[in-house]
Design goal:
- A seven-stranded parallel sheet has the order 3-2-1-4-5-6-7, with helices on both faces.
- The relative contact order is 0.15.
- The longest helix is centred in the middle third of the chain and has 22 residues.
- It is α/β, with parallel strands linked by helices.
- It is built from eight helices and seven strands; from the N terminus they run H-E-H-E-H-E-H-E-H-E-H-E-H-H-E.
- It binds nicotinamide-adenine-dinucleotide.
């Protein structure tokens, strides 16, 4: 096996550097085994972190329980949370406080837009569709940061949100989600400014396309994956595990002077002109 082939697979527990030993974190956005958030959770646990999960409703909870069983996790903490509901945000924060006291980090891996907004002409974006995409995919970072700030204030913390290049460049069919991601990235910078004095860092990781449930809602996503791997300098698609390892770095003390930053994990795609 070449070094690249080895690194494409999730790093084994045996090669853990325990970069997150003694840290506690909350992962928001696991839906199933393909979720990028699930890869991030596993990488954080490999590095010694204690992880709690939020889930959006009973259907997702059933998926999570299956994943916990498969990963042989003993009774991990999880709490219901729809990020558009202020009462659920307050209750989740309270429940997490009871369980963990303080936390050291959280992942925002949440996005949603109506199927009909992710294809066709952007000019036809509906007012409702625009609001919904912004509320779930962008405002939620502000709402979560506000709800979880009291849990990180004592020792400081690290927040990571997942974005996509469609925020800055036009990616066919990404449409309203591109605008929501632009707002997400900008919000991360304002949050980094506000929360910096409390030593709470806020950064954004921007992966290349990865086949997940959310991604399957975008028209022609398969073609996008194929195009991507032929043009990028590293000549491959990005894996969720590669994104997860960058999140580990940002949650760890190795990144202690980095905030308000956007890091691409995209095999070099974002620098290309042609
Ligand atoms: N897959 C990709 O190609 C790709 C590329 C770049 C960025 N991202 C981003 O990564 C993040 C995770 O997406 P994914 O691809 O792993 O897909 P996914 O479908 O596995 O995850 C999306 C998550 O958002 C959650 N969610 C949606 N609405 C919610 C709400 N109201 N309250 C709480 N949770 C809600 C879903 O339950 C799900 O867990 C998203 O922000 C996505 O935009 C994905």
């Amino acid at each position: 096996m070449t070094t690249t082939e080895t690194l494409e697979k999730p790093l084994k527990k045996e090669v853990s550097n325990m970069l997150l030993k003694g840290k506690k974190g909350i992962i928001v956005g696991v839906a199933n085994k393909w979720s990028i958030a699930w890869a991030v959770a596993q990488a954080c646990m490999r590095e010694g972190a204690q992880i709690g999960f939020t889930y959006q409703g009973e259907r997702v909870l059933r998926n999570l329980e299956k994943l916990f069983k498969e990963a042989d996790l003993k009774d991990p903490f999880s709490v219901n949370l729809d990020v558009t509901k202020d009462d659920e945000l307050a209750l989740a924060s309270e429940t997490i406080k009871k369980q963990f006291g303080q936390i050291d980090f959280f992942l925002h891996a949440v996005a949603f837009a109506k199927r009909e907004e992710l294809g066709g002409e952007f000019v036809n974006t509906s007012r409702d569709g625009y609001h919904l995409a912004q509320d779930v995919s962008s405002y939620s970072l502000i709402a979560l940061s506000k709800a979880f700030k009291p849990l990180m204030e004592e020792k400081g913390g690290s927040v990571v949100a997942l974005s996509y290049l469609g925020s800055e460049r036009v990616v066919k069919n990404y449409n309203v989600m591109g605008v929501a991601k632009a707002a997400l990235e900008s919000s991360a910078r304002y949050l980094a400014y506000d929360l910096g004095p409390k030593n709470i860092r806020v950064n954004v990781v921007s992966p290349g396309p990865i086949k997940t449930l959310s991604a399957s809602g975008i028209d022609d996503f398969g073609k996008m994956l194929e195009h991507f791997r032929t043009v990028v300098p590293l000549k491959k698609n990005v894996s969720a595990e590669e994104v997860a390892d960058t999140c580990v770095f940002l949650f760890s003390d190795l990144s202690r002077a980095i905030t308000g930053e956007l890091i691409y994990v995209d095999c070099g795609y974002n620098m290309l002109a042609m």
